[in-house]
Amino acid sequence: MKFIIFLFHFLIVYTVEAELLTRAGGALIYDTERNLTWFSDANYAKTINYNPEMSFPGLMTKTTAAAWVDGLEYAGFDDWRLPYTIQPDLSCSTQGENGVSTSYNCSGSELGHMFYTLLGGVQFTPISVQHNTNYELFSNINEIYGYYWATPEVLATNRSWAFRFDMGYQNLEKKIGSSTVWPVRSGDPLLDQPPDGDANFDGVINAADIHIAMQIIFGLREPTAKEFMHLDIAPSQSGISQPDGSIDSGDLFLILRLGIGL
Ligand SMILES: [Ca+2]
Ligand SMILES: [Ca+2]
After folding, report:
1. Angle of helix 249-260 versus helix 207-217 axis, rounded to 10
2. From the CA of 212, how far away is ligand 1's center (Å)?
3. 36, 186 in Cβ contact below 8 A?
4. pLDDT tens-digit profile of 151-205?
5. In this structure, which long-range contacts are made by residues 78-82, counting pairs with CB atoms below 8 Å and at least 24 apart in sequence?
6. What is the 238 CA–ligand 1 centroid distance (Å)?
7. Ligand 2 centre from 247 Cα, in Å?
8. What is the whole-number distance in angstroms between the Cα of residue 244 and the centre of ligand 2?
9. Sheet of 159-164: strands edge to edge?
């Protein structure tokens, strides 16, 4: 009996369920199950009108996509990458030769995990049609222009892993085709870059940071994702920040205390 109680306790404590937590005021979404952080904007390249191949903004060949995401700096992080595709993946509907897993229901890859597990998508169906409430955390999910690029590349065939959000489909695509990029990184932004009140990232907290915080609070300035990461410092519990997705008087008070010792 004791063993059963122990087992029950073990299952309650250690069953890991995916939970999505907002970071940087909602610009980033942290997946507790995979320890991954996604852009909430699923087509950021389009949002900033990045159009390297002169087709549609946000669409890139695989080579361009890999270079773009490698050079990307956002919310204070420069370790953004393309989502990874694990192989073989027994959850996939098609198991090919040499352990190549493709087609529908692939939940092993990071994009498949996003589509099927995090967003509650179903095969053959656009994610905008069938999804759970997590869908509201994200914007600009591309369903029109084909795939999202993923890794790794398969050099022998000049193809790369990719995933479609209009039908939940995973496949190897020609690298010269145009697809979308959804940047991801490993780790929790809050642990990797705890908020410190340093709004202008110069290593000290002083009147300049207080000025920026006040501009944001009074609606004179829209905070960037990086500013949000630094300024959402309150509330705090036992001296540890518990950011609440808002920059307000509570944050200003802590920054004043750090900056001028109030
Ligand atoms: Ca500063
Ligand atoms: Ca706050």
Report:
1. 170
2. 9
3. yes
4. 998 877 899 999 999 999 999 999 999 999 999 999 999 999 999 999 999 999 9
5. 79/185, 79/186, 80/183, 80/184, 80/185, 81/151, 81/183, 81/184, 81/185, 82/149, 82/150, 82/151, 82/181, 82/183, 82/184
6. 24
7. 5
8. 5
9. 94-95, 101-104, 169-174, 159-164, 147-154
Model confidence over 79-119: pLDDT tens digits?
A: 999 999 999 999 999 999 888 999 999 999 999 999 999 99
Distance 219 CA to ligand 1 centre (A): 20
Between strands 36-39 and 28-31, the pairing is antiparallel
Q: Which ligand gives the minimal distance to the CA of 206?
A: 1
Domain architecture of the chain: domains with CATH: 21-186 (no CATH), 194-259 (1.10.1330)
Task: Using the mean position of ligand 1's atoms as its centre, give its distance from the Cα of residue 126 in Å.
Answer: 45
Q: What is the pLDDT of residues 200-256, one digit of tens each?
A: 999 999 999 999 999 999 999 999 999 999 999 999 998 889 999 999 999 999 999
Cα(21) to centroid of ligand 2, in Å?
15
The whole model's pTM is what? 0.91
Contacts for 25 with CB less than 8 Å, ≥ 6 apart: 223, 225, 228, 232, 245, 246, 247
Q: Which ligand is nearest to the CA of 197?
A: 1
The CA-atom distances, in angstroms, between 89 and each of 9, 98, 110, 126, 172 are 30, 12, 11, 22, 14
